[in-house]
Fold:
Amino acid sequence: MPYEAAITADPSMTLLVLAVLAVVVLLGRFLLNLAWRLLTLTAVGIAVFYVGTVVLPTVLGTA
Structure:
C-alpha cells in the first residue's frame, strides 16, 4: 500500500499530519519574524557604528 493511501485511509493519521504541518508553519513564521527583527537591529547597529566612527569625525574635523 502506498504511503499516500495509508494517510487517506486512516482519519486519525490525516489529522496528525495536518497538526504537524500546522506546527511547522507556525514555528516557521515565528522564526522568520525573529530573523527579520535580528537583521533589522543589526543593520541599524552597523549604521550607527559607521556614522559614529567614519562620518561624525569627518564632519567635526577630528579625523
Observations:
- The mean pLDDT is 87.
